[in-house]
Amino acid sequence: MQRHSDSSQLALKCLKDTEANINNIIIMIGNFNIRDNLWDFNYPYHSIHRILLFDIADLFRLGLSEPTNYCPTRYLNNNYNLNLVIDLMFLKLGSEELDCHFIHSEWCLISDHALLTVTIPIFNEHVQTRKHMIVKDSNKENNFITELIVAIRGIDTNDILDIDSLENIVQSLTHDTKRIWAKNSKIINITKYSKSWWNANCNRDLEKYRLSRYIEDWKQYKKTVKNTKYLFFNQKIQEITNKGHSS
Q1: Which of 73, 102, 128, 240 is the most exposed place for a label (fewest CB within 10 A)?
Q2: DSSP assignment, residue 243?
Q3: pLDDT digits over 108-160, tens only?
Q4: Do 80 and 74 form a contact (C-beta atoms < 8 A)?
């Protein structure tokens, strides 16, 4: 979040009024237009606006960041006044990765303010590119459901005498479910072209057209895709609507 505040501190007052509607802030940065000897060592006074600024930072669970290189952030174009420190950065409290920032006085260019930067680490994240799946409405899906029902029906509940025996049955059912899933599913590559609405009917009509190359089969394939997408997204809309009503 970035802010510029005028001499009347209208930006701070706006933040104070709207703080309840802003969540998960990790950085607050900007020209707060407040001189205070807490961050400007050449200024001998405290500002009455500092309390409001820190109250807002506390509400957002932010703390004042200290620059790794102390220097002014605003440079005046005359020789009569000292340069100022009025550009500040607040970072998320308790964060070991975000605890300081750097002032780039040489990056002012045509502006009279220096730039403030902070390094935000990006951790390596495993992105799954392959997964097991069963095509909806396919024979494999029917086989999976049938075999799973047989496995559930085969559970002997008469042997459930204590917690340990119940745990053994649960573990056995978990093993059977994984085995049946592995037997009927196939591994696919996840790409940006993967379609969650695709089903066995789409596969069937596409394969039919590839074999025949007839225009009628192509039209049937396109019709099947259109109807499948229509039903799929209508169902998703209905699910979202029902979820909204229930909450």
Answers
A1: 128
A2: H
A3: 777 888 899 998 877 665 555 677 888 878 888 999 999 999 999 988 888 78
A4: no
3-state secondary structure of 2: strand
Q: How far apart are CA 161 and CA 224, in angstroms?
A: 53
Element of type H or E holding 245: helix 215-246
Residue 90 tokens read as 């607040």
Backbone angles phi, psi at 115, to 5 degrees: -90, 145
Give the tokens for residue 80. Answer: 């009569």
> Torsions phi, psi of 36, nearest 5?
-155, 140
What is the distance between the alpha carbons of residues 115 and 97, in angstroms, rounded to a whole number?
Answer: 20
CB atoms within 10 A of CB 211: 9
Percentages (nearest 5) of helix, strand, coil residues in the chain: 45, 15, 40
* Alpha-carbon gap, residue 140 to 184, rounded angstroms: 5
pTM over 0.85: no
Tell me the C-alpha distance between 32 and 211, whole Å: 69
Q: Does domain 2-117 have CATH number 1.10.10.10?
A: no
Contact predicate 117/104, CB 8 Å = yes
Rounded-to-integer distance, Cα 56 and Cα 18, Å: 10
For residue 110, the Cα-to-chain-centroid distance in whole angstroms is 36
Q: What are the start-end ranges of the H helices in 111-214?
A: 139-153, 163-184, 200-212
C-alpha to C-alpha distance for 244 and 247, rounded to whole angstroms: 5
The secondary structure element, H or E, covering residue 241 is helix 215-246
Residues carrying CATH 3.60.10.10, the chain? 2-117
Distance CA 108, CA 95 (A): 29
